[in-house]
Design brief:
alpha+beta; two-stranded antiparallel sheet; 37% helix
């Protein structure tokens, strides 16, 4: 790659290149959901990573490819006590209007 030009791309890989991407994704998740612990943030990133694509191998891709949009969407269900009864609230997904969170 020629450092004097900006119109060329180069394929790179490895944990040295993955670490800043994962760190940035964790920052975005923590900014969106400030109440999360570090462990919960890691769990969300791992559970929302895409591992269902052709050529996926855990030894090469680990948990999969980051899916930041999915990580930033509400996860799970929230149980709310209301009028002495329990009800489940599924918040709408901010990325898909009219949908419910998974």
């Amino acid at each position: 790659m020629d450092p004097d030009t900006t119109d060329e791309y180069e394929k790179i890989s490895g944990s040295s290149f993955a670490a800043p991407l994962v760190s940035g994704a964790a920052l975005l998740v923590r900014e969106q959901w400030e109440h999360l612990t570090a462990a919960e943030t890691v769990e969300i990133l791992l559970e929302t990573a895409d591992d269902e694509f052709d050529g996926y191998k855990q030894s090469k891709y680990g948990a999969g490819i980051l899916d930041v949009a999915e990580a930033l969407s509400p996860q799970g269900e929230v149980t709310v006590l209301h009028d002495d009864s329990l009800s489940v609230y599924e918040p709408p997904c901010p990325f898909y209007p009219g949908s419910r969170a998974a």
